[in-house]
Fold each of these.
Amino acid sequence: MKFVTAILRPHKLDDVREALSEVGVSGITVTEVKGFGRQKGHTELYRGAEYQIDFLPKIKLEVAITASKLDEVIEAISGVASSGKVGDGKIFVSNLEKVIRIRTGETDQDAL
Amino acid sequence: MKFVTAILRPHKLDDVREALSEVGVSGITVTEVKGFGRQKGHTELYRGAEYQIDFLPKIKLEVAITASKLDEVIEAISGVASSGKVGDGKIFVSNLEKVIRIRTGETDQDAL
Amino acid sequence: MKFVTAILRPHKLDDVREALSEVGVSGITVTEVKGFGRQKGHTELYRGAEYQIDFLPKIKLEVAITASKLDEVIEAISGVASSGKVGDGKIFVSNLEKVIRIRTGETDQDAL
Amino acid sequence: MKKLLLTLLALMPMTVFAEGLDGANTSWILTSTALVLFMTLPGLALFYGGLVRTKNILSVLMQCFAIAGLVSILWLVAGYSIAFADGNAYFGSLSKFMLIGVTEGSLSGDIPESLFALFQMTFAIITPALIIGGFAERMKFSAVLLFSAIWLIVVYAPITHWVWGGGWLQEMGLLDFAGGTVVHITAGVAALVAAIVIGPRAGFPNKPMPPHNMTMTITGAAMLWVGWFGFNGGSALAANGDAAMAMLVTHISAAAGAMTWMFYEWIKYGKPTALGAVTGMVAGLGTITPASGFVGPAGGLVIGIVAGIVCFNAVILIKQKWKIDDALDVFPVHGVGGIIGTLMAAVFASDQLGVFSGQGLAEGMTIMSQLQVQAIGVTATFVYTAIATYIILKVVGMITGLRVSAEEEQQGLDIVSHEERGYDL
Amino acid sequence: MKKLLLTLLALMPMTVFAEGLDGANTSWILTSTALVLFMTLPGLALFYGGLVRTKNILSVLMQCFAIAGLVSILWLVAGYSIAFADGNAYFGSLSKFMLIGVTEGSLSGDIPESLFALFQMTFAIITPALIIGGFAERMKFSAVLLFSAIWLIVVYAPITHWVWGGGWLQEMGLLDFAGGTVVHITAGVAALVAAIVIGPRAGFPNKPMPPHNMTMTITGAAMLWVGWFGFNGGSALAANGDAAMAMLVTHISAAAGAMTWMFYEWIKYGKPTALGAVTGMVAGLGTITPASGFVGPAGGLVIGIVAGIVCFNAVILIKQKWKIDDALDVFPVHGVGGIIGTLMAAVFASDQLGVFSGQGLAEGMTIMSQLQVQAIGVTATFVYTAIATYIILKVVGMITGLRVSAEEEQQGLDIVSHEERGYDL
Amino acid sequence: MKKLLLTLLALMPMTVFAEGLDGANTSWILTSTALVLFMTLPGLALFYGGLVRTKNILSVLMQCFAIAGLVSILWLVAGYSIAFADGNAYFGSLSKFMLIGVTEGSLSGDIPESLFALFQMTFAIITPALIIGGFAERMKFSAVLLFSAIWLIVVYAPITHWVWGGGWLQEMGLLDFAGGTVVHITAGVAALVAAIVIGPRAGFPNKPMPPHNMTMTITGAAMLWVGWFGFNGGSALAANGDAAMAMLVTHISAAAGAMTWMFYEWIKYGKPTALGAVTGMVAGLGTITPASGFVGPAGGLVIGIVAGIVCFNAVILIKQKWKIDDALDVFPVHGVGGIIGTLMAAVFASDQLGVFSGQGLAEGMTIMSQLQVQAIGVTATFVYTAIATYIILKVVGMITGLRVSAEEEQQGLDIVSHEERGYDL
Ligand SMILES: Nc1ncnc2c1ncn2[C@@H]1O[C@H](COP(=O)(O)OP(=O)(O)O)[C@@H](O)[C@H]1O
Ligand SMILES: Nc1ncnc2c1ncn2[C@@H]1O[C@H](COP(=O)(O)OP(=O)(O)O)[C@@H](O)[C@H]1O
Ligand SMILES: Nc1ncnc2c1ncn2[C@@H]1O[C@H](COP(=O)(O)OP(=O)(O)O)[C@@H](O)[C@H]1O
């Protein structure tokens, strides 16, 4: 199994979730994160003091999938999350050794 | 070493933390996340517009452990986090190559 | 490639980010988390009821790097994040199989 | 005989005799002025602010603040004069430009004229501030300012003259105690026109845009309720039974509007929401406004109930059926409320309705004849406001542009227009 | 002679002569009415709202709002009449049903009766709103509404008649200037009974349930302080020295209560908390309420200090020792405060206490004889409220059920009862 | 003849005759008192609170609250007497210790003395509360309390005596209608001295410390605007044309200050910020304060514009050039505003300026001679406050220490000083 972590623009979340549904992914976990990268942040101004805010709001989406679906999932995410502008984000893939569904105790493929 | 990530119902956190203490886990890291899965979300109503909110508040618990404790830890979590109703969450296990305790520079088992 | 996750004291974030820049890391992702470990939390007092708050605010920093940079990165983080007092946090290293830059579709080293 | 006169003098309220200043009335209008300012700042600002998304919260608060500042100055310079200086049936004059001649000794009736001008200024502030709900979350800040400034002079000040400054609607006998036409219809119609001209927010109506902070909205609504006592009660321009009755019926209508909306929603959707209750309350307040000086408690109750039902359906109609993105529902709540309130004033002012009686229509008026006058007032206000607002928007659009770019809208107005963030918790 | 009379006339305050309306008094009571409404909305709503957990914030705000709406209508329909229309020693009558006969010209004393009815309405609103602190975070919304409605008619209106409407306690000479018995004891006792009948929140007392937004609670507390000027100062029903002195002692007591609680906590637990300070302030305000029209500044100081100490210990006793989940400490703060304030009124009203003197007891009364009257007032209010509240809760329980299910409680009332969320930052 | 007299009597406002209490004036000052308390609680508390970082929010709210409590008691005990009891040119006396002799019947002019003492108490509260902005986010709570207490007695009460209590500056003819010297200069200077003595916050000026909740700051600013009507309008101590004109010019200056700062910033930095607008508004309010009873509308406009420009540059100068960490900019906004306002009062009070005329200088005064008096008033207040504040801080430092430890500052004052957290959303 694989564990896919994607860093996305916040407003792409709904589209990505739908795209994943279409390839049969039925569960995901989402975290609000702050990203720092090539994309420039914004300036803030308080009583004449200008602050450069480097961290940008991003969404981290985590999804556990069976290894065979990996390419499909990457496709699905990249397809809708890409705008072509700096800051679209990344997809990280790592190996997942085990999954347990707490409710039933099912493991691995059955637990996804 | 193993890295265990559990997605839980928020109100189970305290119980899980205690259960982990009992099996000798002394450190954990917790994140507020939003989950999407089989469990149905709720409706929100604003001036006659009904919104279906699919994302549910969940807690992500991350804990690094020595490999030999894995089963015990999974048991501990599953034991208290399960309510038998859809939405109890999952446990993901992956391999952890290295751990460093920043304060002392200790590594691996000593750093846990 | 390696995926490095560091749990840090919140006010160390800016220093760590700079230290990472210096060793050539150009992107990171940051999450606000709550940590539980050896460091003692604080007490809160509401109308005579004292609560022990065990969870402490921490920052989780995630960064994907090429394997060869691992030691340098660990050094960089440890260097500035350490205060010598309990609660400085940990660094977790795991293997990263694949990285994709969503914007361009570049993969692995090129995507970092 | 002299003794009798003396006694009479003593027994009658001061105001009857005082050709000079009446301290008690002054005291109440000083207070009312504070209450009406409080309605906009922070009342309306919070009510509206809570309803938008986090990324636009400051833009809403800032627009309310900036309008308060800008309008105050324009009112001083020319607005008050256009509205209240002697002139013709349609327009005052510039004789009170810069409030020239208004000193600490000048009176307007039995209160200081400086106070009357200030009290009216707070009405002039809230009206354009109400409009921003129509184009919230997408309009350029420069355009908001320019639009509000022109609108104040071209729409608000003249209509105020028509209704309260001795103009043609006042002559005709229009009943508008505290601003059903002047404030609520003008604001509601302007918001509707602006929403149409500027177009919907990106994603509307498919993407849900829930309020980012309902606690803020409810806090603001509560402040509106309290402040409205100054709005309607103060419009008596005296501390007497008229003021008291206006406050009482205002309160009753607010309560009735809130309860009606709440139960209606409960029945229709299965749950009573806090947003529903406070929206119904605001609808009740807006609707009673023109009628508040003329009706009795039971009349206020009916007006509040009608407000709840009609405005509820108006929201559904405009937003969900017609898909007009009047973002914070200004027209269905204030515009529609102002219209039905102005009409109902003719009915419940009558003293022929038993327990539902009001304070009586003017000599020679019947409900029907008064209704005609009210209808003319509503129509004139509606049409003039709609046309003028449309033209002003087109002009402003040519000068500054009306809308931020799609990308800026996506990022949010707070950072884009003001380089600030609402929360950094 | 005539000249003398004339001069006398001129020198004496208007009110002495005016059998008609007094504008100054009217002005102040119009203002006070706004201040008292402000205490509930948004004051109390925010004070309470900040103390609950995020998932229940809207339920608290909504309950305050809905009670304000519902009570206003019931007060119009029957509450005012039961409390203030002529009747017997225990109950008014229905002769002022729907405020029939209350026109813009009717007076109550030297202020408009419509104003008096509205001023009293704001008291009728805050009392059941105070009670919700007892059963917060677990009661069904329908049950809250039904309970509040019945309670208003069965408990609040009659007791108001006893104390202020010409009833038996007023006859007996009970000193309750602004509602120590009528408002605070009734609300405190009802909250206690409700907390016991409904049972504790899931997890109580083991699970900590810290306030979700202390800034909201402090904001609400500050509004209560300000609004209380209308509550106690307005209860003079005049803009005179009595009103002023009532406001002064109210303020002093609030300050003393806040400081006492703060230092007490500092000594006992090592840290002075903001919640402690504002709770002490509210205790000081509640406690001075019945006494505020009778005591002097130094008396107010002592009352505030006593309030801080006694209410502090009452909170510990009820919540931590007795483990009664009166969730927001309504009884220990308001109930206990009301009781000790009503009793202390008898003492510090005396003009025999040197610097601690008040305005003097009634002809023929001594501190001890007055204390007896006060004790009867307290006991009667306590017992009647307790029994009636218990019965009402049982009745409501049979009709709607009192409590949401365990699972719903877990999920939070905002989503479960209102399908809304407080924050979406 | 008698008839004439009679008629005259009837025509002239009550106040002229009344050697007794004037109900209308009393009504307005009762209201104003509530408005001024509202400025501190919650107004200023929120305005300041939003500007600090989350970890210190409660410390700010708590300091405002605790100062309100502490000062109220000290004012009762001795402050009022030092400021307003008969004494010499520099100091009142302790003859009104514990407000002895102030009963419900005592008058001060034509309002109750209890009311005058309370109205002034609310001024005494806000002044030390303003100071906390200078040392926010780092001072020990015990030190804040001790400092505020001593400062009230040693600085505030005597200077109040100088200016309003019959002291030497009043004798000299200093124009300070509502507290340019008494409130704003003293608070601004004390904050500056405190900021220097205590030293900057850790990380200043390199580390950005953006406001944690701009919505809170704007809400507080709005409340300040509303409350300031009581501050300046109430300072007329009457409900008349003076009060009304004071309120009007106050409002105009606030609006002008806000707009000036906003446009200035827009031009200079490319974006108009909400914080800029509200800061300009507060600057406009602080600056008009001493002048508000003497100038006309156009004068108010100029004063507001000058306030916006000068205070804006003062902020940049103090914070960014001089690197003094007056954390919430108390000196540049209030201190500088108070200074230039006190000076401009001399100019715009003149009735020789055409449309910019005010109500006229005192018999025999010219703009230049009045300016001299004003300059003496400013200098005396500035120097005395600076020296006394410095000494008080040194004394307090020896008793309690002034600053929390570096580690505690890092953790935040909320947990460290009060064991509470602002938000748990
Ligand atoms: N090496 C990395 N490790 C972890 N997260 C990264 C890394 N590089 C980028 N990110 C995340 O991806 C986001 C987008 O990266 P950025 O360089 O701005 O644009 P792009 O992905 O288009 O190249 C960043 O905000 C950050 O959250
Ligand atoms: N494939 C997945 N990858 C990541 N997270 C998942 C996945 N499936 C479920 N989750 C997380 O687990 C939570 C519970 O899943 P759900 O399907 O609702 O119930 P259950 O775990 O009882 O089957 C989800 O809300 C989501 O956060
Ligand atoms: N085994 C673990 N797994 C995951 N996170 C951990 C683990 N141990 C500690 N942490 C995280 O590291 C933080 C610091 O740990 P702590 O034991 O307090 O101090 P130190 O790192 O100095 O030993 C904790 O707050 C927690 O977030």
Amino acid sequence: MASEVILQVINVSKSFGGLRVLNNVNLSVKKGNIHALIGPNGAGKTTLLNIISGLEKSDNGEIVFKGKSLRRLSSYKRARIGITRTFQNLELFSDMTVIENVMAGMYFKRESGFIASGLKLRKVRKDEKDIANRSLQILDFFELSHKKDEIAKNLPIGEQRLVELARAIASEPELILLDEPAAGLNIKETKTLGILIQKIRQDMGITVLLIDHDMELVMKICDFITVLNFGEVIAEGEPIVIQKDPKVITAYLGEEF
Amino acid sequence: MTLLLQFIFSGLTTGSVYALVGIGFNIVYNSTSIINLAQGEFVVIGGLMMWFFFVGLKLPFLVSFTLTLAVAGLVGFLMERLTIRPLIKKGDLLLMIMVTIAVSILIRGLLMFKFGKDPYTYPPFTVGEPIVFLGAVISQQTLWVIGITCICIAILYLFFNKTMTGRAMKACSLDIKAARLMGINVSQIVMLSFIISAVIGAVGGIAITPISLMEYDKGAMLSVKGFCAAIMGGLGRGRGAVVGGFTLGILESLTAGYIHSGLKDAVALFIMLFILFLRPAGIFGRSEIMRLRKF
Amino acid sequence: MLVIRNLDVYYDKLYTLKKVSLHVKQGEIVTLIGSNGAGKTTLLNAISGLIRPAGGSILFNDEEILGKTPESIVKMGISQVPEGRLIFKTLTVEENLLLGAYSYYSIKRKREVKEEMEKIYKLLPVLKHRKKQLAGTLSGGEQQMLAIGRALMAKPKLLLLDEPSMGLAPTVIHEIFKYIVELKNLFRLTVLLVEQNARSALKISNRGYVIETGRIINEGSAEDLLLNRDIQRAYLGRDLDSEVKI
Amino acid sequence: MKKDNALTIFVFSLLILIFPLIYKDTYLLTIGIFIGINALVAIGLTILMGYAGQISIGQAGFYGIGAYVSAILSLYFGLPVLLSMLLAIVVACIVSIFIAIPALRLKGHYLAVATLGFGEIVYLILNEWGPGGPSGFGDIPRISLFGYTFTTSYEYFYFVWSIVIIVMIFSFNLINSMTGKALKAIHGSETASATVGINIVKLKIKVFILSAFYASMAGAIYAHYVTFLSPSSFSLFYSVMVLMMVVVGGISNLWGGVVGAFIITILPELLRGFKELDVLVYGIILTIALLFVRKGFVPLILEGYRRWLQK
Amino acid sequence: CKEPYKIGAIFSVTGAASFLGEPEKNTVLMLVEQINKAGGIKGHPIEVIVEDSKSDETQAVLAAKKLIEKDKVLAIIGPSTTGESMAIIPIVTEAKVPMISCAAGASITLPVKERYWIFKTPQYDTSAVEAIYTYMKKKGIKKVGIITISTAFGDSGRKALLELAPKFGIQVVADERYGPKDTDMTAQLAKIKASGAEAVINWSVGPGQVIVTKNWYDLKMGIPLYQSHGWGSKRNIELAGKAAEGVIAPLGRIVVWDKLPDTHPQKPILKKYVTDYMARYKSEPGTFGGHAYDALMMVVEALKNVGPDRKKIRDYIETKIKKWPGTGGIFNMSPEDHCGLDMTSFEMVIVKNGDWEILK
Ligand SMILES: Nc1ncnc2c1ncn2[C@@H]1O[C@H](COP(=O)(O)OP(=O)(O)OP(=O)(O)O)[C@@H](O)[C@H]1O
Ligand SMILES: Nc1ncnc2c1ncn2[C@@H]1O[C@H](COP(=O)(O)OP(=O)(O)OP(=O)(O)O)[C@@H](O)[C@H]1O
Ligand SMILES: [Mg+2]
Ligand SMILES: [Mg+2]
């Protein structure tokens, strides 16, 4: 796989009040990799993801995506240049249908504006048709098309997670950030999810940065792992290396693994 | 100097009323997340019922006072049982707020029916000349109002931060299901909050009527100003409502004094907006909390 | 201790639980496994009184609790760690824990509450460090710990756990399970556990039930279930397991 | 627009067309005109609240700006009425941008108070500096189209309702488009909307402008129909009534604005018989309506209609 | 029983201006009963359909439409406020229905040419102001501070006060305002005190005038307080208590009817009206109830003489209401004046020992 770096986190620190949550974190994600970020609860993983996606500002340091600093870009602009994400505590548009959720993910791809939409010009109709079709394709990919008209919040958690993933994929990102996608899924579903993530990387060429506590999943699908503890990177490497790293075992994995 | 002081006293007088209404808002907000826009009507009920018992029926002061609070509490109780309770589990805040508006119209209709449209008043709690301080005058009744306001926030502070019932109330506004899983009787607690806020509103009404008279339709204005006060100070925070209320009152009287009395409300509101734009969660509100809750 | 007979629940005229019967003896840990949407959460909510079943009976210590309010059920000693945590986001960690003790709190028992809180802090030290922090700003895992701690604060006789391991780091799961077993051994705490991670759940359990589209389809001792081939394939992810292990 | 919406609007337009032909009563027509005017304001608020999830208790402000600016331009500056109406709308839209930018940082009750504050400020300014001050001013010219001046209630009725129908069509198109989905998305989760590339601020501002557009248009029509303006028509009370219309009609459906405007406008007329007690009865009816209809009348009607179809 | 004559009435029975609409409505209901009991107009009972405009112009428009279209009334009395009157003028003019407004604004009947169908019974605000200023001139007061309520009532008073001051050699040194529901006016009064004014004039109705009086008293301003003609209700004296002592106001004779000489042409009417009203409603009709009295009686008199014809009613009122004693004064209508009253319809009255006393 190519070894070009797509995302670089350089010296990022972050405090809340007096609490230092991230401390000079450095991290590089290679294009085409599935990269995992693991660590104990409260280590700062979600915070780092928030900083990358622009929901939170870092105190210092820099995020570089495809060679460009993201400092001045607000969240929605980062999405537009190719970084989307899912959330640890689901953030679905819960009163919208499944397909509407996915279509919303493509919002910025449409070409027609506010007034044109109200007047329903021909190009608007075409635009919308395209978007609806593409959304259906994506739902097909996740085997969710039979539920396209259900209200999102009525789905079981597992499927909600998939819808969120589909929504993130819809905007055709280059990098997708997944925050505990397997939480609340049973082993079977987790396995399907693993396969899906691999397919996303394979078929769509999307780089994945993933957080999860499900070690079976992480060890199985990831190319590279970064371990965070108390806001600092304590280990980095391939799964086999990390599994055996004593620091990681005491801080995170426990003896059993 | 005297003039400035006089303006401030005047602001304190009006501000304390806003503060009391604002506190009432906070209590209900803290247990339900809704703004009870009938809060101003409780103040009116306080003033008018006090007149009814004290002047109309010529009962002794304390008896009238107690009876008035009882009536207000009863109205709060009925309002909660009949209108809020059927809706609260659905959690549609907007609907509940609209219902409080409808109830306020209803209460106003009732009060008009009973008391007509005339203003009412009765003698101040303590008779005597107004107090002169550095040339500025402040009436004794105003001191009463301010004192009562202070006592109310002190009690409420202790209640919400030191007692389990207070905490339980806050829990109810956050997540009804979870609150029930803690063993909290949500329906009772919400009822309690309506009663307390009604009683506090009525206390305010009893205290201000000698200063500012009371008529059946004063409630809407009080609700609006109290709402502004509560928001300006930061919703849910007792001292927020008080600081908000006094700020609003003093802003109004300073504008009236130094800028233009015709625009005093406009200027005060404008400054309120400005404060909100600087501090979207109000003076004492925490933006973290704002981020964590929808309302 | 808990006996459920022929419980029926429906949402919108569709059966979610159909004639479910199960029991949990005092001092037992019983696991409920089943796929997404099988009705596990619904069952726990029915026990807690959060939803009204259409028929059947739920006996707790030989007393019918079906139809009682959640408040009174909690007071009888049943406490739940709900799905989705449902912590009070804008209250502090400490306030959340205190509210856990709401059902028996009184001035006189203040000390008891304090002691209980210390125990929770010892089990989950993170919470102690964060006690003045707003619960909603905790990390996902920390919130899960708080939800568990809060339920334990109630000093329940019967603890209902709905996916307690969600979002928790492996070491923490381990700690919590260990603690629950300890409580069971020391105080004969009874536990009904719903868990996606069925294997580790069954490991600490005495017995288990398998629920599928609202019906109990299998039950037995934990060991039996762990060894059952169908169950292994469906819920324990045996084949996945073999692929991963290197 | 979806097919059933198109059909409903078509049937509705027919009804509007024939109504004045059957009822030749200008009292009813006048009520109809006010319903139409209120409906315009309510539709704007329905989009703002029901779809974008932004509360506003300040629509009277835009309504007032539309009315006053248009009246002043045509009366004192002698501009043609249509031009002054247009300019009034432009002014209201510009004002709305200045309000929206800071206000939309706020949410929930805070946003409610900020918009309330805005509405009150407009009212107080009209009261202080508007022509005639609190007493108001009259003799505002009537609407004229291509040299033809509208004088009768018929003309105003058709004029108002044609605009309502155009506005409905535009609004339906809008909310069924991608823009509508983005609005609902913002309502659902702002964080998530941002991370899928929706420019929340810009979109919110646009809807805010749209609602100001509708409200000021309604205000301008009001001014040139009644030909007399005083600030009291643009007080907080009006904002609250519009809010009530939206909630009573049903916040989640555009028709809610129209139905709500109908109910809230006509209710006081029906209650004229109660004389003294009308406030009380009004309060009781509102309370009961809210308690029992909850989601608003439109969803209730739709539900009934669906049941009826199934039979 | 013959067919009734229908007359429409639009009053602000509720809302901000209910202080006007309430006594007006009461008056009309009482009069209708009396007239019908006395046999009506040549055997025709009269029927007055009272609509509540809720102090709102839109509602007034609807009410006017209803009265004209549905009830086909012969004439309309009211509305109570200038704004509502202005709002319905185009409608009644178009429908050619005579209207006698109960609001004071000059623009209601001016320019008379355009207000062909419109009359009004209240005195102009300017008349009340003239009465005050004339009295002040006599007392040698040169500088006044004015404080007015920010409603139409206060505003038109304010305009008149500012406009007429130079004519009387009076200087307005402070011009303050307050809202209809304000609870404290100390700040404004303190400012007036500091401005060196020799008298305060408050122009308002409702609780505001009592609060101003109390604040004026508490501040010990040391200068006299004048109120508008809205002050004429005993309740105000009761509410303000001892603070009201010494307050001066131009009031219609209706308030001090019992202190008028028996020879005064208004006295019999006032006596009957006030005593009947008090007996029935346990409160005073005040100046405002009187406006409705005058309006209705004009229509009734016209009906008596010309019968049920809108145009004839109008013509009768314009040309035949001369030296006509009403509650508000002696009316002299003419094609140039559709109001017919001037400042002589007011008396300057001071509060002494909790009662009114006419100042000479
Ligand atoms: N607004 C805040 N104020 C104070 N502390 C905060 C705030 N937000 C997060 N924290 C703290 O920062 C730490 C890091 O949180 P973060 O959500 O990044 O953890 P995480 O690694 O994602 O953990 P988990 O695996 O449990 O999800 C936590 O200890 C949390 O309590
Ligand atoms: N409020 C509701 N209204 C309608 N249907 C519901 C509701 N809650 C749950 N259901 C349905 O009831 C069924 C059982 O849901 P339940 O939440 O009990 O499943 P679960 O076994 O806990 O699943 P999970 O593993 O996803 O937590 C599901 O099909 C779900 O869609
Ligand atoms: Mg996390
Ligand atoms: Mg579940």
